[in-house]
Every structure is written in structure tokens, then in C-alpha cells.
């Protein structure tokens, strides 16, 4: 569930125009007449990440459960691709129980670790899922 959550967040972040920025800081005027406002990239801004975390778990209905035949380890994989192309659904369990339990797990993780997720995703990193 955690990996599916991070996959979705990373994909959403990648969809944002890299030139898009947001103003951060104080809009109060300093005694010298200047303002302490900084422009930061919008994609990894706290405002954008908070917004993504509020709606990312809705995407869990696009996932199914796959069991590795060798290890019998369960994992969640997308059943609907982001671009609408057909996907290999062989050996996939896809029903209301799977999607509702995944959505619940996603919401629990997003709620409990919101600050840590925002802090971690605000910087670009390798192997984010791990």
C-alpha cells in the first residue's frame, strides 16, 4: 500500500510543469520596504503535496492485488494505466474488497505519516519507495 501511494504521488509530481512556481514566505513588509517572499517550484511545494495527499487515495480503486507465484508475496499493481493503454491483468485479483482495503491502508498511511511524506517528497530523491 505504501509503495502504491508513493508511486501515485511521484507520478502526480512529475505531471506538473517544472516552470510553475509558488510564492512562499511572509507577505509582510520589512522596515526597509522589502518583502521576504521566495519563489519555489510548485511540484514539490508543501501546498501541492498536501493537496495531493488529500486526494491520492482515491486512485487506489485503479489497483488490483497480484500474488507472486514463486514467493506467494502479495503486491498491488495498477489495473488501469495512467495513459489508458491496455495492461496485462493475468493473475490479478480485482474486486471491492481489495480496493477498499487498499484505500483504507492508503488513508491510514497518508494520515499518520503526512508530515514525513511531505518532508521526504519535497526533495527529489532516488529509490523513494524504499
Task: State the end-to-end CA separation.
Answer: 12 Å
How much of the polypeptide forms β-strand, as a percent range?
15-25%
Q: Which class of secondary structure composition applies to the elements? A: alpha+beta
Helix count equals: 4
- Gross morphology is elongated
Strand order of the largest sheet: 4-3-5
The gyration radius over C-alpha positions equals 19 Å
What sequence of helices (H) and strands (E) makes up the elements? HEEHEEEHH
Quantity of strands, as a count: 5
Helix content: 25-40%
The total domain count is: 1
Largest sheet: 3 strands, antiparallel
Mean pLDDT: 86
Would you identify the regions where 5 or more consecutive residues have pLDDT less than 50? none
InterPro entries: CNPY (IPR042415), DUF3456 (IPR021852)
Protein name: CNPY2 protein
Organism: Mohoua ochrocephala
Domain DUF3456: 1-128
Report on the architecture of this protein:
The protein is 37% helix and 22% strand. The protein is α+β, with helices and mostly antiparallel strands. It has one domain. The strands form two sheets. A three-stranded antiparallel sheet has the order 4-3-5, covered by helices on one side. The protein has a two-stranded antiparallel sheet with strand order 1-2. The two termini are 12 Å apart. The mean pLDDT is 86.
Question: What labels describe this entry?
Answer:
5 strands; 4 helices; three-stranded antiparallel sheet; single chain; 130 residues; CNPY2 protein; alpha+beta; DUF3456; two-stranded antiparallel sheet; CNPY
Amino acid at each position: 500500500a505504501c509503495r502504491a501511494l508513493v508511486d501515485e504521488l511521484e507520478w502526480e509530481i512529475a505531471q506538473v510543469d517544472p516552470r510553475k512556481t509558488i510564492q512562499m514566505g511572509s507577505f509582510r513588509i520589512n522596515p526597509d520596504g522589502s518583502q521576504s517572499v521566495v519563489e519555489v517550484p510548485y511540484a514539490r511545494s508543501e501546498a501541492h503535496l498536501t493537496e495531493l495527499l488529500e486526494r491520492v487515495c482515491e486512485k487506489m480503486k485503479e489497483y488490483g492485488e497480484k500474488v507472486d507465484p514463486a514467493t506467494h508475496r502479495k503486491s498491488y499493481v495498477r489495473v488501469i494505466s495512467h495513459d489508458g493503454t491496455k495492461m496485462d491483468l493475468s493473475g490479478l485479483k480485482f474486486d471491492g474488497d481489495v480496493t477498499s482495503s487498499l484505500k483504507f491502508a492508503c488513508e491510514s498511511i497518508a494520515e499518520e505519516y503526512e508530515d514525513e511524506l511531505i518532508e521526504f517528497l519535497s526533495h527529489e530523491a532516488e529509490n523513494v519507495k524504499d
